[in-house]
Amino acid sequence: MSDVTLAVSVLWVFLFTYSILGSIDFGAGFWSMYFSGQHHTKAGALANRYLSPTWEVTNVFLVLFVVALAGFFPKATHMLGAALLVPVSLVLLLLLVRSTFMVYAYSVAKHGRLLRVVSGITGLLIPGLLVSVLPITLGGFVTVEDGVPVLHLGELFTSLTEYAHLGFGLSTELFMSALFLADYSREAGDEETYRDYRRLAIIWGPINLLMALLTVSTFSEHAPWMVEGFKRYAFWFGLSVAAFIAAYILLLKGRPDGRSGYPRASIITVIIQYGLASYAYFSAHMPYMVYPHLTFDEGITNPTMFRSLFIGYIVSSAILVPVFYLFWRLFLKDKRYVQKE
């Protein structure tokens, strides 16, 4: 396996992990705001209970991804730094605002309402801005003038594919978080809250699938080279759709004890679905980082630096994986935490 393939695989693992955890994290912030003040349900309190210990952990994978990108592909920083300056700067600003409120509002009870509002609004904006990066890499929005990459924001924000990506990102966030919180509710033994989140997951699942199809349909005009890549990986996309259907059936299916849905099996199947779809997407995107100006082969670091970085990530992963497992056992499985009032 080549250095480029290994480096891209590491980036994919970090990005995929962050996309799943980020969708749940930001979506939980929105649902906490949405259910705030609705005293007939504990859905808002449960979302906040999940959010309390996890928001710090989620951003670890964003940092790992950025550091890996700069380390493995240092020659790409010039192109990506100039092209993504505006959206990435906005994301960092919103993350700073959200993190600040998370740190201070939890220790001052009277600011709890403001925390939920800030968390909910930024939870919608951040994923949208992150997903807006993808259309930039498809070509047509970046030109190189006198050796300097220039991002044409006017063309970007008037293109259908940009808003299709935004819609897909938002629907993914709301569907994934609702489905996860449904499972978290059942883990907490709160069937009433489970029904609230199950209902939201049932609503947002088909919307998410439709937004995905709409996004792909915009490529024929804007990025025909990606359409050819999709044709090569049609089998993987087909498996992804089949996994989504299986997850949706698991969510609807009745149980022998009279309850409805298998949320744990459903969320696992949805994660598999996104894994299949993202693998096919990034495989179709190869070999370009930013079409047609930059390829992964052009941006890769020298072999000596690559080996050092790769070994470093293997060692760090061996340390982090057990830590994250213990974190999961403490805050997502321990009944003393998930069932507390």
User: Biggest β-sheet: count, sense, barrel?
Assistant: 2 strands, antiparallel
Strand-residue fraction? under 5%
Low-confidence stretches: none
SSE order in H/E notation? Answer: HHHHHHEEHHHHHHHEEHHH
Summed up, the helix count is 16
Helical residues, percent = over 70%
Secondary-structure-based class equals mainly alpha
Radius of gyration: 21 Å
| Average pLDDT level | 86
- In the sheet with the most strands, the strands line up as 1-2
User: How many beta strands in the DSSP annotation?
Assistant: 4
End-to-end span in angstroms?
51 Å
- Give the overall shape: globular
Q: What features would you describe in this structure?
A:
The mean pLDDT is 86. The chain is mainly alpha-helical and 341 residues long. A two-stranded antiparallel sheet has the order 1-2. The protein has a two-stranded antiparallel sheet with strand order 3-4. The protein is built from 16 helices and 4 strands. The radius of gyration is 21 Å and the shape is globular.
Considering the chains and any ligands shown, give keywords for the structure.
341 residues, mainly alpha, two-stranded antiparallel sheet, 16 helices, 79% helix, globular
Write the layout of secondary structure elements.
Blueprint: H1 3-34, H2 43-72, H3 77-83, H4 85-105, H5 112-131, H6 133-137, E1 142-145, E2 148-151, H7 153-156, H8 160-187, H9 191-217, H10 219-222, H11 224-232, H12 234-252, H13 263-285, E3 288-290, E4 294-295, H14 296-299, H15 303-333, H16 335-338
Antiparallel strand pairs: 1-2, 3-4
Helix pairs in contact: 1-2, 1-5, 1-8, 2-15, 4-5, 5-8, 8-9, 8-13, 9-12, 11-13, 12-13
